[in-house]
């Protein structure tokens, strides 16, 4: 999946993100991951800067892809949400209060090693 992001908002840079296809059950050690054809890809966005979080969410929503997007304001809130719904992709800031992005990445991979985690700074 290729996602082109652009915005005229200050502080929001244009970019091109490339997500490799979700692994098969065999590749993930018997655990099915990712969305099947026609289903939604579940994305969890995590950042303590609300403006950036909303801009990223809006950019993804307007990308024309079949996405289910959820947000969290810090790593601990994100982990609580992830424990309820295992998202296919987590995009997280690195420096946040209560739980940083690196700790969140480690905790998510303990719960679901096949989840893609993108760390941004």
Structure description:
The protein is α/β, with parallel strands linked by helices and 121 residues long. The protein has a domain at 40-121: Rossmann fold (3-Layer(aba) Sandwich), CATH 3.40.50. It is globular. The protein starts with a strand and ends with a strand. 27% of the residues lie in helices and 25% in strands. The chain has helices at residues 50-61, 75-84, 101-111, and strands at residues 2-5, 15-18, 41-46, 67-72, 89-93, 116-120.
Could you name the key traits of this structure?
121 residues; 25% strand; globular; two-stranded antiparallel sheet; Rossmann fold; alpha/beta
Give me the secondary-structure topology.
Blueprint: E1 2-5, E2 15-18, E3 41-46, H1 50-61, E4 67-72, H2 75-84, E5 89-93, H3 101-111, E6 116-120
Parallel strand pairs: 3-4, 3-5, 5-6
Antiparallel strand pairs: 1-2
Q: What's the overall average pLDDT, rounded?
A: 78
How are the strands of the biggest sheet laid out side by side? 4-3-5-6
Rg over CA atoms: 14 Å
Number of strands: 6
CATH domain fold name of the domain at 40-121: Rossmann fold
CATH homologous superfamily (4th level) name of the domain at 40-121: Response regulator
Major β-sheet annotation? 4 strands, parallel
CATH class of the domain at 40-121: Alpha Beta
């Amino acid at each position: 999946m290729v996602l082109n992001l652009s915005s005229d908002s200050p502080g929001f840079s244009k970019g091109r993100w490339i997500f490799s296809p979700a692994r098969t059950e065999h590749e993930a050690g018997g655990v099915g991951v990712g969305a099947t054809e026609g289903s939604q890809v579940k994305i969890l966005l995590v950042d303590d800067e609300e403006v950036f979080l909303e801009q990223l969410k809006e950019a993804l929503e307007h990308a024309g892809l079949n996405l289910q997007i959820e947000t969290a304001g810090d790593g601990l809130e994100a982990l609580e949400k992830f424990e309820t719904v295992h998202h296919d992709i987590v995009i997280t800031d690195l420096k946040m209060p209560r739980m940083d992005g690196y700790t969140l990445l480690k905790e998510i991979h303990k719960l679901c090693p096949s989840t893609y985690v993108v760390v941004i700074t």
